[in-house]
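User: Hey, my collaborator sent me this sequence without any context and asked if I could get a structure. I don't really work with proteins. Can you help?
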Amino acid sequence: MFSHILVAWDGSASAGRAFDYAVEIARRFQARVQLVSVARIGEHSETDAERQSSLDEARRFYEQRSAPLIESARRQSITVEMLIVEGAHPAEAIIDTAHRVGADLVLVGRRGLSGVTRFLIGSISDRVARYAPCPVLIINDP
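Assistant: No problem. I've predicted the 3D structure and written it out in structure-token form, which is a compact way to encode the shape of the chain:
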């Protein structure tokens, strides 16, 4: 049923819970897991060197935060890959990545914005669920 699971990963606790669910689903379906992290570089960098430096910094951050989770999953024989993409808006980057890599399930954590805040600025998880090319599992904060 599922062979390629994409997890939106920003290093938060809710993303960690989404990853835990992904590992369990991957175990049941013998699927691979791919973490996607969005580096919002373009709006902060003026030169290619600044852009590359920011991207390298984002890569170090995401790799450091995800390393214990990836190692734990690999000990359970779950294949996990890390992908860092640039994007102005995380939801769009996650959706584009799901299309590009052929994901058949996307997991994303929800931080629990208040009703007014979610209404005004929207929710990344809501946008991903609405526009992703495959089913989306949203993991709410407990």
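In plain terms: The mean pLDDT is 87. You can pass these tokens on to your collaborator as they are.
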